[in-house]
Amino acid sequence: MSTSTSAHPKETFLADYQKPAYLVDKIVLFFDLEPSHTKVHSILSMRKNPDSTDSACVLDGEKLELVSVKIDGRELAGNEYQRTDKALLLATVPDKFDLEIETIIQPDQNTALEGLYHSGRLLCTQCEAEGFRRITYYPDRPDVMAVFTVTMAADKAQWPILLSNGNLEAQGIFDDGRHWVRWHDPHPKPSYLFALVAGDLYCQQDNFVTMSGRDVTLQIFVDHENSHKCDHALMSLKQAMLWDEQRYGREYDLDVFMIVAVNDFNMGAMENKGLNIFNSACVLASQETATDHDYYTIQSIVAHEYFHNWSGNRVTCRDWFQLSLKEGFTVFRDQTFSADMHSAAVQRIDDVNQLRTMQFAEDAGPMAHPVRPASFIEISNFYTVTIYEKGAEVVGMIKTIVGAEGFRKGTDLYFDRHDGQAVTTDDFVKAIEDANNIDLSQFKRWYSQAGTPVVSVLGRYSQVDQTYILTLSQTCPATPGQATKQPFHIPFAVGLLDQNGASLPLQLEGEDDIFDGETRVLSLTETTQHFTFITIESEPVPSLLRGFSAPVKLDVERSNAELAFMMANDSDSFNRWDAGQTLLINVLLDLVADAQAGRQLNVPNMLIEQMSNVLADADNDPALVAKMLTLPTENYLAAQRQPADVDAIHSARTFLKETLASQLKAEFSDLYSTLSVKTPYEFNAEQMARRSLKNTCLSYLMATNDPMQTQRCLKQMKQSDNMTDTISGLGLIVDQAGPERDHALRAFYEQWQHDRQVVDKWLSVQAQSSLPDTLIKVKALIKHPAFSIKNPNNVRALIGQFCRNNPINFHNKDGSGYTFLAEQIIALDKLNPQVASRQLGAFNSWRQYDDYRQGLMKQALTTIASQQGLSPDVYEVVTKYLADK
User: Fold this and answer.
1) How does pLDDT run across 722-753, given as a tens digit for each residue?
2) Cα–Cα distance measured from residue 572 to residue 495, given in angstroms and rounded to the nearest whole number
């Protein structure tokens, strides 16, 4: 019997969690693979869960053609089960039984890219979070863990490579010439970690010897034309495996570890047990086609997915509300790995930049949610910067509180205690508590309370008592569903500097022992607390929130002179950069106010002198200098003062950059020339820092509007032996109207039109151009043969970059940018709801703009909301955006 479910999306609540009624001990799958008609035969060994009182046996399933259902070999009649468009309900089943199901699916019609789908010459899967239900009926939830055995049969000429999770167990040839392969994964796993790949692929192979002496085969599978782009990913994998052994004592547990590159993929990569599936952009690299940022990102993502083998696979989530249990922890691990591989200071700056720009905006918007959400309509909407990046900050704070040694003890206990289990964030914190004999009950509010706390700071110095009293107060704004917040446990790292920049003692009142160190972590657990430092012989300059020890905003009065002092003298690299950024923001906001009032714009000489001093320090730390020279983005500036004036912000930022470029032109030019010495390309921290600073200098030189600098930029592109320098030059040229721009774009495309990852770069630089005709160009590119709305990378490169990273054009006061995005989301929603929903993020902060623009954005959102048949993905986001504050 078949029925339809309600079209109105249903909200799921953490409070309603119930243990599964039935468990699956093992599943045997057989796939008869064809792009248009794949048969799936499954046998589930099921048993009643003794910890559940529910007797209903319900299996999830969507977009499946059901052929047959059998229990212990007996085929069920139509009246013995009920089928909806979301599930299969078996009314009466034994306590223990084998459930046999046959379904038919159509991979080549699957544009949502969830479940089994067709991508180029591949058949592949994406099952996180709820894609397995598009393959066969199954209790598709992470707390049902089973041992998988998978057999695939396919045409050998078309699909010579057949891969799945675990270890290769057997293979053979049928009489008709088709072949079959069987894989077995001995480790129980949830269905979201299932993976299958079939195709004609090149394989690059290596090996890794684990710390216990086991020899593991490493394989990367790519399209044959990309065979020269595997070296970096393979090296990154070996680095990650060694690092995880050394830092966490975690060893790989199968005979083979495989990575497959796929062109059509909704995410960056997926940690399927033993068979990671990657977006091609996150695994393929050569110096001619990949930038330093690409190399860096690939190294990080390869590590991230490998680290999931323990923090996500061996120990997984009980339910999807616990998503940050695996993602926040694993992001923290990959960030630490990247810091160890390169510059820890630059890594921290990059991490905080992303958090402040994206996650703080999410916390301040209509989709604000805790690290452990309380409810959702569509779980794919919660693969967010809050779950990932803020979740990583929460783990980092735990490490700060218990120390490196205590954190290692806690994670060892967590892995050992919960190996093979599906658990919660509370279980993670409990392991840390038990290993360190500490109470983190208050700290757990970081998991349950949304919003970005604001810490207000007041300092008072007494020359007579030689004391410095630091008063810290915390508040947290209301967020949807959470009007009031309880105090957080905030680890607040501080240092004190004298007037020469030297560190002062950090001994607190009541302590007998002198504190040994330049940085001290204070525990802010109350609404307001006072910390009295003693034996302070001169009035100090406080260095606050060192290393960004907690994801909070600071409310503190600091003069530009004080910020300049810290920018020059703070021994904490992050705080040096942060002082510089705060100084730049102060100047930029003053320029915005002047632009709005029609006053003449002027840049303080003090800022120019400070930036000159930064340039003079280029030899000591070029990577940090490049970061310190980079101006805050227009999007970040828009969040600093409401209502945001898009045009004034753009004018102010452009004026500041042009002024700095003009005043320091000689310094920028000399440094650029010094850094342009030709050396063979290598991806390492030193060379990457030099290229970053060189191209930062070039961006300032191009801001002088000197035709000679345009020629210098074109020369760099022509002589470059690497994509970092080439695309940096092209990104600067596209902001210059004229024949050079058109020629450069045409020549670039003609050279690289065969390479999909490079073409995405070509689309992206055009989408970010500040020229006023950019939207016209973007609309034309949508019709270009290089663009397909069905390809998520194309969508992110063109539509996403225009709407998220080109504020002056997206927020054009005629509303054309908003109408354009609404049209694209409506079209995308019919093809790929996940990608459509993520593009809505460009509207997240719509209430921070002026009333007129708010009205236009509301109109665009209302148009989207009024569409018939809207997916749950888009419905959830657009209705929350439109909800009253």
Assistant:
1) 999 999 999 999 999 999 999 999 999 999 99
2) 9
User: Could you report the per-residue pLDDT of 384-432, keeping only the tens digit for each?
Assistant: 999 999 999 999 999 999 999 999 999 999 999 999 999 999 999 999 9
Could you give the dihedral angle defined by the CA atoms of residues 109, 111, 112 and 116, in that order, rounded to the nearest 10 degrees? 50
- At 7 the pLDDT is 60
Contacts of 876 (CB under 8 A, 6+ apart): 9, 376, 377, 378, 381, 837
Interval 66-110: pLDDT, tens:
999 999 999 999 999 999 999 999 989 999 999 999 999 999 999
Q: Which residues contact 645 (CB under 8 A, 6 or more apart)?
A: 592, 595, 596, 850
Q: Which of 62, 100, 114, 305 is catalytic?
A: 305
Write out pLDDT tens, residues 522-561. Answer: 999 999 999 999 999 999 999 999 999 999 999 999 999 9
Nearest 5 degrees, angle CA 127-CA 129-CA 130?
70
Kindly tell me if the per-residue pLDDT of 1 is higher than 90.
Answer: no
Say how far apart CA 743 and CA 764 lie, in whole Å. 17
Q: What is the pLDDT of residues 659-685, one digit of tens each?
A: 999 999 999 999 999 999 989 999 999
Is the pLDDT score of 196 beyond 70? yes
Count CA atoms closer than 13 A to 592's CA, side-chain side.
21
Q: Distance between CA atoms of 322 and 374, rounded to whole angstroms?
A: 10
Average of per-residue pLDDT values in the chain: 97
Sequence-distant (6+) residues with CB within 8 A of 247 are 336, 337, 340
The two counts, helices (H) then strands (E), for the chain are 29, 31
Given a contact cutoff of 8 angstroms between Cβ atoms, the answer to whether 840 and 881 are in contact is yes
Q: Which of 354, 257, 241 is nearest to 297 (CA)?
A: 354
Residue-wise pLDDT for 472-487, tens only, equals: 999 999 999 999 999 9
What is the torsion angle, in degrees rounded to the nearest 10, for the CA atoms of residue 621, residue 396, residue 375 and residue 144?
Answer: 110
How many residues appear in the chain?
Answer: 885
d(CA 548, CA 351): 10
d(CA 490, CA 440): 11
Give the closest residue to 571 by CA, choosing from 592, 546, 540, 535.
Answer: 546
Percent of the chain with pLDDT over 70: 99
Task: Count the Cβ atoms, other than its own, within 10 Å of residue 92.
Answer: 9
Per DSSP bridges, beta strands 74-75 and 65-71 are: antiparallel
Q: Which residues contact 801 (CB under 8 A, 6 or more apart)?
A: 763, 764, 767, 768
3-class DSSP state for residue 331?
A: helix
Query: Which residue in 141, 132, 420, 407 sits closest to 253, CA to CA?
Result: 420
Q: How far apart are CA 695 and CA 683, in angstroms?
A: 16
What residues contact 145, with CB distance under 8 A and at least 6 apart? Answer: 24, 188, 189, 190, 316, 420, 422
**DSSP line for 652-708:** HHHHHHHHHHHHTHHHHHHHHHHHT-------SHHHHHHHHHHHHHHHHHHTTT-HH
Judge whether 646 and 853 are in contact, CB under 8 Å: yes
Angle (CA) 453-454-456 rounded to 5° is 145
Q: At what angle do helices 323-341 and 425-436 cross, to 10 degrees?
A: 60
Please say whether the beta carbons of 33 and 48 come within 8 A.
no
Asked whether residue 3 carries a pLDDT value surpassing 70, the answer given is: no
Q: What is the pLDDT of residues 825-875, one digit of tens each?
A: 999 999 999 999 999 999 999 999 999 999 999 999 999 999 999 999 999
169 is catalytic: no
Reading the block at residue 570, the tokens are: 């703070």
- Which residue matches tokens 């309380």? 374
